[in-house]
Amino acid sequence: MDKKIALSMRGITKRFGKVIANHRVDLDVYEGEVLAILGENGCGKTTLMNMIAGIYFPDEGKIYKDGEEVVIRSPKDAFELKIGMIHQHFKLVDLFTAAENIVLGVEENGRYNLKDVNSRVSEIAQKYGFHIDPQKKIYDMSVSEKQTVEIIKVLYRGADILILDEPTAVLTPQEIEKLFRVLRRMREDGKSIIIITHKLHEVLSVSDRVAILRKGEHIATVNTCDATESSLTEMMVGQKVSLNIERNRPWDPVPRLEVKHINCRDAEGVQVLKDISFTVNAGEILGIAGIAGSGQKELLEAIAGLQHLTSGEIIFNNPKKDKPVTFFHKSMRRVKELAAQDAFHDQMGNPISFQGMSRGQIRRQVSEGAVLFREDEVIDLRHKTPLQIRELGVRLSFVPEDRLGMGLVGSMGITDNMMLRSYRKGHAGFVDRKKPKALAEEIIKELEVSTPGVNTPVRRLSGGNVQKVLVGREIAFAPKVFMAAYPVRGLDINSSYTIYRLLNRQKESGVAVIFVGEDLDVLLALCDRILVINSGEVTGIVDARTVTKEEVGLLMTKTNASEKEEA
Amino acid sequence: MNIWLNFLIDSLAFGVTFMYGSTGEIITEKAGHLNLGIPGIMCMGGAGGCLVLNMIGASGLPGFLIVILGILGAVLMAMLCGAIYTFMTVTLRANQNVTGLALTTFGVGLMKVIMSKLDYAVYLVGPKALYRWPFAGQTNALQYLGILFFLGIAIAIVASIVLFRTKKGLHLRAVGENPGTADAAGVNVTQYKYAATIIGSGIAGLGGFYYIIDYMASQEAYLSLEAFGWLSIALVIFALWRPHMTILGSLVFGFLFSCSSFIANIEGINVTMAAKPLMKMLPYAVTILVLIISSVRNKRENQPPMSLGLPYFREER
């Protein structure tokens, strides 16, 4: 083949703090081709492309356009070099019309005339087979229309190299087919198209060549005609790395949490969870694997009571056991209500109704632990707020992905953060600070949190220490279900192993642990079973002891369409 | 002249004070910056203009030069304050509300110090007549209309044309709506933010100058200026972020603000002392009403710029 190189990168390295996003990447893009960039989450695909588009500036390495070295410092520089990027999150001004968005930032001589713009937009649309109304406001548009605006915006600027960041993630299969037809027409027109994706069948159907990135490094570039789904997956996930994480067989697994056919839509009405069903057993670690944004966050939030479900149930199975009543929710009325229903009894099993007792007497009995009650065996957590879940006596711990946003308050000290769990305890309107402080000190000691003191704002701690504080607090709550989303993200090896150990200890004490991870090696080594989620659907629940990395990788990237074809 | 017409003209003449302030604030807010320093900037604009007039008022310079230098003094002083705000909030990414409020406290205080040192006879008595052209000789409300009155209306209209009909305006609105998008499209976000906040401040500063020199033209005028700065910010909401709408808004605000004294002048209506402050509340009540109506109607075009109050930093992730 005698094709001209349009753009090439040599030795591109980019770091964010200590994290290396790209390491010495070499890549060539030819004219009139579709190049797919394939890789797992966080392997640096988008970062690499952002450096060509002028969003980031590389720390090392050179970029050549048409054989000449170029420096791209801003998106404007990229436009001047005829490079345009269509971001995953559209960069459009909602309030403007399509035409206004398209013309935004274009420096042209002559008067600003929207009519001219409109006709030029229609011209481009016709050439490549788009459908667009230039006068339509963005906030009235569907996702696919918005994407069309983005693509025309880039073409309007005369781009030769188009970078599309996961363009199909938000489209329906019909829209994807339409997009691919447009991409093929652009290729015939001599344009270079770079498409970032992790959907293998799309790579195979639209691209000419595939570049595979893994952990920030360029692994290989192959011709699509020579590649198969399994060969690509193999390169994408790499060789299995054996990690030295201890793992015992689950001891006496009984179903603890049953998720049945749950569906959930996000704020924009996109269905993020589609008919998800699974069971988590007590005493096991269930891993959740999936490409970022496949619905992991929504799934955990749904269980924690933070997402509104359109349908389905979440059943929490509590072991039937006597336990002392506490005034955890401090509602005497609720206690009396339950007493009237014969919910309470003493150690002998005789019912206690509290009849004729003063509030003080009841309080004393309760605080002495003399009142027991038999918990409900099955509780539906659907449409319950986190507080209601807690009041029902369901001990659910959640370590969210966004530690300092959802998990902890960055400007407060460790003690105060402990109190986020216990602020309802205490007497006569005053909070109890002693126990949280003792807990804070215990966590610092046990988990080796390095901090100047219990009152240092947690924001000032390093990522690993922040995570230890959060995980420590959630474990101290003695949960029955423990959910952790990416608990080792951004942590160094030692801190990561501390977290793995903590999760294992929970598992051994009979807690049902849900672990959302991104590193397949860790998932395979730590978990008992792995649930694979793909675009909001469960594509498989596999035994982590026997499954291979490639199998999980395939489940993560495969879409239903290709599954049906095979079937 | 009809007493009502007189009153309307007077209301508008009064309203020009906050027409300047709110036009300036709208331009600033369109760049995504909520500038609560506007009262202080208006005060400093007034002080800057008077300071210049105090120097040249009795120097015997030609009239038009005194007018131009006075206006320049006001604009430059206000721009300087605006530049402080912009540097703090754009370059140093300080909290916009805190910076703005600090600037107001600072500006109002400094203005009072400056004004108390100036010679009333020099900065006001002579130059005042120059700004009152061309209706100075009239005995009805037209006597309050001067150069700065017409300039204010012109600026409000031109600002609307620039914002909604030109490429620069498109870029500026994009910066205020979604700076990330504007940046990715190749618009220099920092440059636009600086230009908009500084120009907006300059325009607002003229409001203070107009009020002291032209509309009130009294020794104590500066003492009540701060209140109109806050009214200007309320007027932005009333005008739904459209500069030309501030002309209508300032007429309504001026009318409502001074109607307590106006109604007392009409026969048969007796306004008690207790009712006066209540009536002065009207402009704010109307603002709340407009806010409620525009929120309920929920039309996207009538909402504040999307990224108003949020700092922008490109490599944040």
Write structural notes for this entry.
The complex is a heterodimer of chains A (567) and B (317). With 567 residues, chain A is of the alpha/beta class. Chain A has four domains: 5-237, P-loop containing nucleotide triphosphate hydrolases (Rossmann fold), CATH 3.40.50; 251-318 and 381-395 and 479-567, Rossmann fold, CATH 3.40.50.300; 323-373, no CATH class; 410-477, no CATH class. Chain A has a six-stranded mixed sheet, sandwiched between helices. In chain A, helix 17 (493-508) links the parallel strand 20 and strand 21 (512-516). In chain A, helix 15 (434-446) packs across helix 16 (463-476). Chain A is elongated, with a radius of gyration of 28 Å. The model of chain A is unreliable at 561-567 (pLDDT under 50). The termini of chain B are far apart. Chain B has 317 residues and is mostly helical. Chain B has one domain: ABC transporter involved in vitamin B12 uptake, BtuC. Chain B has 13 helices and no strands. In chain B, helix 6 packs antiparallel against helix 9. The A-B interface holds A 16, 53, 55-56, 74-76, 79, 85, 87, 91-96, 100-101, 103-107, 112, 137, 139, 153 and B 165-167, 170-171, 173-174, 177-178, 180-188, 300-301, 306, 314-315, 317.
Q: Compute the gyration radius of chain B: what is it?
A: 20 Å
Gap between N and C termini of chain A: 36 Å
Shape of chain A: elongated
- Structural domain tally of chain A: 4
Oligomer: heterodimer
Q: In what range is the share of β-strand residues of chain A? A: 15-25%
If you consult CATH, what is the topology of chain B? ABC transporter involved in vitamin B12 uptake, BtuC
Level-1 CATH class name of chain B: Mainly Alpha
Q: What value does the average pLDDT of chain A take?
A: 83
**Average pLDDT rating of chain B:** 88
> What is the CATH architecture term of the largest domain in chain A?
3-Layer(aba) Sandwich
Topology pattern of chain B, helix = H, strand = E: HHHHHHHHHHHHH
Helix content of chain A: 25-40%
CATH topology of the largest domain in chain A: Rossmann fold
